[in-house]
Design brief:
By secondary structure, the chain is an alpha+beta fold. The protein contains 9 helices and 15 strands.
Length: 421
């Protein structure tokens, strides 16, 4: 573990694993297990192992900080005469057994054209190059370059993962470019407080220097995945887009209904087995797909209309309503997807030179943006408890307006109060 943070970690790791004239008896007989292994593949395997160990170290340090905060809260509870809440989260386990694949660096692969790549692999007798033909040509977006590829074994066969990294920044302002770089580093290290401070600094800088600044306001609604409006600093609406979500919510609920029916039929679940594993995996993949799809559409919408800031509500305190088990789980997973949308949008927007901030959701669906009273009434024509449209019972000026669109006006006003005052 002491080698992880050393500058010469690769040299030290090779001394532990590679037999040479000056190092005839390494501690770990890597060369005995893999004779005549090319140096590029050996170093790639060492780099992959170090990456996994660094990832575990970061997760473990994050778990330690979370535990310390919990203990501090318990100490305050005891001082107030309340019972302490036990900390039940388990620490992350060190990855002693993994199924990852090393990356092909340098001379371990050769790119022939946009559809064919040669990889150095073990043929059964020796190491040689074998051709891989892609199902579609590799297209690299402008401003990006391709990194070293990785072959990954899947249930249906092999997949080629090629990372892309940014070579030109979309931000021209030197101070802003430096702030975005620091924000990316803070996000990578998991320093939430530092990242929050950097976001505020970026927003303040944009408001103070850009007279034509545009802001993309996003409401993660009930009947829609998202309602997006682009506004200027005077509040004028430049563009609006709705992303409907009722169909996807019904599909997830059908999956959850199958899980609930299986739970009723099942009496005893064998120890060590995951209940309805295939269904839960399908639901998890579906939710992750939705989060990636919606976050990508939000960022593309902001880029299309020149917005430099994306504003969300901070929805951490939302709790699902009581109802049937499938209804309760559907709402719970829907709220998790909303949180994932914000996280995915935050890292995707950095590549476009856009910053993501969140504001308090207090009364954004109840306050009238014209009269300021908490007099918004939500309804759906023909339904008893609908929430699709909104009207103001105080001034009467707001009527038959999309409730989620109305919420974006209040979110934007809240953003101006926090950052532009």
């Amino acid at each position: 573990m002491e080698l992880l943070d050393r500058d010469d970690w690769l040299k030290q790791a090779e001394m532990l694993t590679h037999r040479t004239k000056d190092n005839p008896e390494p501690l770990y007989p890597f060369d005995h297990e893999f004779p005549n292994l090319p140096s590029g593949l050996r170093r790639a395997a060492i780099a992959e192992a170090r990456g996994l160990a660094l990832s575990w170290k970061s997760n473990y340090e994050r778990w330690q900080r979370k535990k310390e905060k919990h203990e501090e809260r318990n100490r305050k509870r005891v001082e107030q005469g309340k019972k302490p809440i036990p900390f039940t989260e388990r620490p992350p386990q060190f990855p002693d057994e993994v199924s990852s694949w090393p990356t092909w660096y340098g001379t371990a692969y050769k790119t022939l054209d946009e559809r064919r790549i040669l990889f150095k692999v073990f043929t059964g007798r020796s190491y040689g190059y074998r051709k891989v033909v892609l199902t579609a040509p590799l297209v690299i977006p402008p401003g990006y370059a391709a990194g070293s590829p990785t072959l990954v074994r899947k249930g249906h066969g092999w997949e080629l993962h090629i990372p892309l990294f940014q070579v030109t920044s979309p931000v021209s302002d030197k101070k802003l470019k430096a702030l975005f770089f620091l924000l990316a580093e803070a996000e990578k290290s998991g320093d939430a407080s530092r990242a929050s401070g950097l976001r505020k600094a970026i927003v303040k800088h944009l408001i103070g220097t850009d007279p034509f600044l545009r802001v993309c306001v996003v409401d993660l609604g009930v009947d829609h995945h998202a309602v997006m409006t682009v506004r200027d600093t005077k509040g004028r609406v430049i563009a609006v887009r709705f992303l409907p979500g009722a169909k996807d919510s019904r599909l997830r609920k059908r999956y959850l209904e199958k899980v609930v029916r299986l739970q009723r039929q099942t009496r005893i679940i064998p120890e060590g087995e995951t209940f309805a594993r295939a269904l839960w995996k399908k639901i998890a993949n579906f939710d992750d797909y939705l989060a990636h799809l919606i976050s990508r559409r939000i960022v593309d919408f902001a880029v299309e209309h020149g917005a430099k800031i994306i504003v969300f509500e901070n929805l951490k305190t939302l709790r699902p309503e009581k109802g049937t088990k499938s209804h309760y789980l559907n709402q719970k997973l829907g709220y998790w997807v909303r949180g994932r949308i914000v996280r995915y949008t935050a890292y995707k927007s950095l590549h476009a030179g856009i910053v993501v901030v969140r504001v308090s959701p207090a009364n954004t669906s109840r306050r009238c943006p014209l009269c300021g009273e908490l007099s918004i009434e939500r309804y759906t024509p023909g339904k008893k408890n609908g929430k699709k449209l909104a009207r103001c019972t105080a001034c009467g000026e707001v009527k038959d307006v999309s409730a989620d669109f109305l919420a974006t006006a209040n979110i934007f006003d809240r953003f101006l109060c926090v950052y532009a005052s």
